[in-house]
Amino acid sequence: MMQMKPWKDVLSELEAGSAERESAPERPHDVVDRLRGTGFLALRVPRAHGGADASLRRVFEALIDVARADSNVAQALRAHFAYVEGLRFAPSGAFQAITDGSVIGNAITEPTGAAAGDFAGLSTVFTRTGDGWTITGTKFYSTGTLYADRVWVWGVTEQGVPASALIPLDRPGITVVDDWDGFGQRASGSGTTHFAGTPATTDEVVVAGSEPPPRLAIGAFLQLWLTAVVVGNLEAASNDAQTLLRGRRRGITHGTTELPRHDPVLLQQVGDIASKAYAARVIVLDAASLLDDVDARLHAGELDGTAAQEAGRRVAEAKISVERLALDAATALFEVGGASATRAGANLDRHWRNIRTLASHNSTRIKARVIGDHVINGSDLPDNTYF
Amino acid sequence: MMQMKPWKDVLSELEAGSAERESAPERPHDVVDRLRGTGFLALRVPRAHGGADASLRRVFEALIDVARADSNVAQALRAHFAYVEGLRFAPSGAFQAITDGSVIGNAITEPTGAAAGDFAGLSTVFTRTGDGWTITGTKFYSTGTLYADRVWVWGVTEQGVPASALIPLDRPGITVVDDWDGFGQRASGSGTTHFAGTPATTDEVVVAGSEPPPRLAIGAFLQLWLTAVVVGNLEAASNDAQTLLRGRRRGITHGTTELPRHDPVLLQQVGDIASKAYAARVIVLDAASLLDDVDARLHAGELDGTAAQEAGRRVAEAKISVERLALDAATALFEVGGASATRAGANLDRHWRNIRTLASHNSTRIKARVIGDHVINGSDLPDNTYF
Amino acid sequence: MMQMKPWKDVLSELEAGSAERESAPERPHDVVDRLRGTGFLALRVPRAHGGADASLRRVFEALIDVARADSNVAQALRAHFAYVEGLRFAPSGAFQAITDGSVIGNAITEPTGAAAGDFAGLSTVFTRTGDGWTITGTKFYSTGTLYADRVWVWGVTEQGVPASALIPLDRPGITVVDDWDGFGQRASGSGTTHFAGTPATTDEVVVAGSEPPPRLAIGAFLQLWLTAVVVGNLEAASNDAQTLLRGRRRGITHGTTELPRHDPVLLQQVGDIASKAYAARVIVLDAASLLDDVDARLHAGELDGTAAQEAGRRVAEAKISVERLALDAATALFEVGGASATRAGANLDRHWRNIRTLASHNSTRIKARVIGDHVINGSDLPDNTYF
Amino acid sequence: MMQMKPWKDVLSELEAGSAERESAPERPHDVVDRLRGTGFLALRVPRAHGGADASLRRVFEALIDVARADSNVAQALRAHFAYVEGLRFAPSGAFQAITDGSVIGNAITEPTGAAAGDFAGLSTVFTRTGDGWTITGTKFYSTGTLYADRVWVWGVTEQGVPASALIPLDRPGITVVDDWDGFGQRASGSGTTHFAGTPATTDEVVVAGSEPPPRLAIGAFLQLWLTAVVVGNLEAASNDAQTLLRGRRRGITHGTTELPRHDPVLLQQVGDIASKAYAARVIVLDAASLLDDVDARLHAGELDGTAAQEAGRRVAEAKISVERLALDAATALFEVGGASATRAGANLDRHWRNIRTLASHNSTRIKARVIGDHVINGSDLPDNTYF
Question: How much is the ipTM here?
Fold first, then answer.
């Protein structure tokens, strides 16, 4: 897709210094910038609007590549792509911002804990003014906003009607606080965003009734995004296991070969980890294909709940399988290294920390129960952003 | 593909009585017959020759369906499809036998243990006679021959030149002995085949030098076949877990709901098993797509060893991941049933027995070591029928 | 403990032919007989009554040995030992039957499914006659009764009062049907026992109010018995893995050594299985020591529910850990063998079948939930024969 | 053992602030001091010399307690206890230092990488002076020395004869550098120790030929120490899982109960983790009992290599089983928490980091291979400090 520079080179640039950045207070602003010129951010923009109109499968393929290179940046772009997904269903898609190279962040979740996808509980208020609106409220887990040019903010009007807006982040009254305190995905920019009477134009605000038709399976899209970032980490762990074993120069105590890189027991472990990486990528890409099917139906005007449910189910099943593969691999990685592999300087624990953090977004075991209830008792699968 | 009858109905017919057949001395001759009219056996025959020219991905998809319905029949057809793969590269493809509905069995492996793909060590002898050949020798693990119309037999001429033939099984001197003694895949017809001066025509015999060009990745095809049959068993185990839990009428001791089918802990297990089934199918189908790539290159005249090695690697990695998923699921299935699920009459142990038997064809751990050696030390992957 | 013959020799005799017996309709009557003279059956009889007064830890140690040699016999003796445990609390312990070499079977569970330990729901009736009682009813899962001399039968009087009796199996009206149809523990004699007006003397019958004081943790004892038999199977699987690898004479395809027995990857697997066997035995023996503590307190007159609950919890935790180790090992065993290890003749699948059957007696996952509820919410642990 | 204060109270004090200390640059000097008065450090000192003469089982039991409270302190005391083990075999045991409350650190391993237990390769030199010795050299991985009063240093004389000494850390020329850079066990004080012409008296130096008789199984002791610290972390992870679930106040999305603490799926997970903690402790304590057996034989003058090998084997098997349980549990812990459990402030990832670091000291898979080689081919087990 990438006009100016081979995608492979872009990835190498993203990857360089990724381990060091992760363990430093540094934030990867440059890395996000480097993606702007590549076409990646506009992959889902229709051709008519200057994008690549790529399939979701293609997007998730590129996403796994990005996540392998820099897991934080990959997660930070989740809201950006989710916003574009919605835009594709809007009557007059305002894709200009995207093709101009803008990155979109989010300001959706609130500290008070409205339920998933429930506008009603939001306390952020959109107030009418003479010629527009002002927005006041506080959002947390606003992943990616730290690196974004514009922010997608959700709230309610004073009458309690759902409302959302896309506004530039340099608008007055916006404060982005980098206070995400996770032991993983440290640089994902998942902090707090405050709006204190931030002005917005009538063009920017969409009030319920005027919004695009419901986008089925957007929850599945959002969930699969996280699982794909997990796969990127798994691939990075597999690569690191190979680099680690290849680089060992001292014989291993009780080993059977002069160099560890020829020890059958360690090679078996490397092969096993590689097989996990292959499996995980394939599972996510298949689920992405199912989302493409749903997308095609929606564009064809079929609001097919069954296909969306099927896709949602498979996305949840992908999460279950992929996380197990990834956590196991990120743990097993150390079995091909010696004690020096545990040096903080090597930062090889970051894969487990990242995966463990991503996997904790929504309970995997509870999802398994929901699937069981669906297949056994025919219960509907949830249609919200947490499933 | 299925002209006469919906594929779904064919599968239901195959599945009916599958569990009972497995635990009886009965052999599923009828079941194989039922597949003859469906087009399945000719899926890979080019359109010009009356087949469907289906992709390998499509074949493996249908194969998993068949294996889910009857694991033994699915394995029994391995040589049939491998033979057709070779035929597609022969100058004058003799597809008539296939489109006529014939089933092909194999007579390749010998008790004396020639190495994988090594004609030199074969003791079955092809002897020239006045107007043809006679064949004498003994083969074991001749899977599928019990259900076949013709048999594909490998040997050497008296001069030690590799030779093979496809001959009808009602030819004089052939004895098929149903002496396979596995605890799984009991009805796969993997017994012994004796040839005692069996006549063959010059048309039927192919001697080295006159055979089709080497078919790269045929080993990968054969190996993926077994892994796909494993997936079929895993899907059957998942279905049986659901049927089992749905059917329980007595409350479970120390459970939290009146009926076991509503118990969250058991539903979580069902969802987990379902996710394994999904993952396993997807992995095999992706590997099949890679074989399609190799196939396309070969037909385009590119003898690309790299693509074949890549496919071979992924097929081996698929075996590693899929077997673990399948063995775990076939064991976990009982966790949603009570003591009565262990009745021999229910025959729910057959999935583990089948999978365990299929998985033992070639050492999975050794394959992992080979992959490790490939990615770490750049060793070539083996190109034989065991990898 | 064993006066006449070294215990090791007894075990060798039990083990000889165990694999063959398991796959034949044969029942191990001789094997049970062979244990009569060894003192094993009277291990828990007090010294004053001619027994060894062995600790429960000692009993479970010997039990694992027996189970390793013959898993069916080990399970069949469960009711025998449970009966003796009760006897130790009876005012006038009638140990004569035990020291005479009698084996005790059970007739407790009923087809109609009274809840665990719930006499009230039993339909077997004890009816007073002129000088004694008659017993009428049907019992299933009456494990061990096939090999027993006497049977321990539970029921209610016509007034609904709980009653039990120990009576000789050659008493009129008793029919023992060998109709247990499990795919594992085939020869455990867990069939049906019918009582049709079977006479019993007043001495033989114990009616509620006259029975020994409540034996806390008898459920834990019964449950640990099954887990110990699982350990025996695991040890047998570990031994079989070693024998299998040691005996392989043909080089393994893609292996790194001439003989499989020197292949590091296969040796690693053998070591791993051995470590599972060690862990499992140790876990069960520790839980047995906790039962010894409970036993000591009970004999000292302390009806300490806390110690009994602690023991019950650990027994349940032992089940959770041990079953996972055992099922994994019984599956992994085949990874050190080739295809020939799956021959029904070798009967190496019996370990998985036995373990799977034993493990299905009571839901392991549900027990984990109960423990979780206990440690999180302080719920009492169940005190019944199923926990 | 604990004269002044109940052991339980000591543990509570150690535990307080343990999570915070771990994530800070702070080092737990106070915590080590708090153990001085408890008798713990002199548990293995013979009664005649003022100690408790406790069994190794008792020591490992207390060690697991300490590790649960503070994993770093537990590891830091490894050399101290190893030194005392050796002292017990010295003709005139100099236990005064121990009973006085001194903590012993180690200075054994060298950057140049002499093989395990191989004095010959050491570059630290003991040089004779007029009335004593001077010691010059650099040691790394000198765990515990940061908290110690005296250090146990190994080297060779100028003639290449092995030599060792126990000297006070305030001796001239000693520099202890806190440069251990692990992502786990951060505060274990496993840094570098430099000796620059450090003086030692003739009393303090033991030269080969004058040392106590060989202490078999000291390697097993050292290895089991690490495994016991792993168990402490596992127990802490299990406790944290319980605290986490108990404390959740918001309902879980897609859950079946109002509060997460009543959700059967989450309770099952807590029960499962608890069962792992129980299993792991029991395995280590059993292996400790085997070391007690070896110890008793050695004191009785039996230099029984077989018993020592058996103990060494079980210690290695314990490592294999325990690490798997512990890594799984430290990963699964997060499945009972929500996204907030991944806050760095909660520091719940420290258990995985600690266990992963401890487990990487010596390759677990290679140990499994060694055991496999021992049981299959009768190879001797290594007798060094790495096995």
Answer: 0.95
